[in-house]
Amino acid sequence: MAASQDEQDVISCMLKLPIEVNPSEDEGEDVDESNNRQQSEEPREGVNGPQGPQPLDEAEATSEFSHELSDEQTYYDVFISVGIRQALPVMNPYICIWCTGNKEDDTINGLCDSCKSRMRKDEEEQELFDKAIDVFNFTIASRRVRFYDKIEHILDEHGESRFLIYKGDHNKARVQVPGLDFVILNEAGVQTEYTLSEAQQELLMQCLLTSRQCHCQMIFLPDLLNQEFHGSPMEDLDLPPGHGDVASEASRLVDSIREVFFTPKHETCGSHYIYKFEMSRSKRQYAVSFSDKQLGWPQIVRPWEEYYHERIEDVTGTRNDVNDLGDKREVTERCVETDLERVREEDPFSDEYFKHLEMQMYLDDSQWITDDWKKWKENGKL
Fold this sequence. Notes:
Layout (H helix, E strand, L loop, with lengths): L4 H11 L9 H4 L7 E3 L9 E2 L2 E2 L4 H8 L9 E9 H4 L25 H8 L2 H23 L4 E6 L5 E8 L13 E6 L2 E6 L2 H12 L4 H7 L1 H9 L23 E11 L7 E8 L5 E4 L12 E3 H8 E5 L6 E2 L2 H20 L4 H16 L2 H11 L3
Antiparallel strand pairs: 1-8, 2-3, 4-6, 5-6, 7-8, 9-10, 9-13, 9-14, 10-11, 11-12
Helix pairs in contact: 8-11, 11-12
């Protein structure tokens, strides 16, 4: 798939690597081999076979890109597919996670000097950002330690990297998240392999680990968000999530948290969940998402109006275009309780049964959230 000059510039910026488009034989010798490699020679076995783009062979998949399967491990069909072009915008460690402008260092999800300076003068926004980043890092860590899916690195019909994620069985043994140290792009018919830095590898993995997680996070995050942003102890939350009656007004950073279900302005995603925060003191509103990276959107916190106009095509909700925090979890619990056994008896191989089983998995995993969060706050890791 040929890229325009604008796209070439974007790719070069994203990866911080040189891009050669249709190099001549002489020019081809000057390509920096430490950063990329033209695929005119024999490609890696199992990545691009003689019949065109093929899934990685078993030896390569189990060692470098995927999981070594045990006898007990089973996987369902592919439930998400992420192309490298979708992931590129979140793979640049040199962009500010707030304004998306350039920054000097490659700190993952860090701020540029200008945003750091501005936030030091805005205590409320600084606290919101710091807490949101902490929760995001926790969700990534939690996904890693309870990762039972399989990631496969293949080439798509354009000869570019694509990542297939197979849903696993959460009752089986957990498996280690694979490493992904290179990607392949096709520029004007020339395949180029790019070696990724550690920061780029981590950002690519964050994109993959957040895939299909927006609804999952709506199930297991309500209590945690109440504690961190409403000031409500998780163990004391016997009230419906989102009401925050057990916390005093003075202890609240955020006055209200709502779940927003919407159609995004995105080529491949038909629906998405995010949170809408309204601050206690300033009443400013923010979009907060711990799973936008799956869509190639790097920011975790944005002013609501900016996000609404740039990202949202249409909003569907039960009250004021949004739902109360915890509504998705309550609906999921009722759905699983009333329908899981029925759909299993009707057809245990149907898509409907798989959807219900997936919801049950998320509910089961949510039982670990309190202990995991305490461990995270104490040790900074799981």
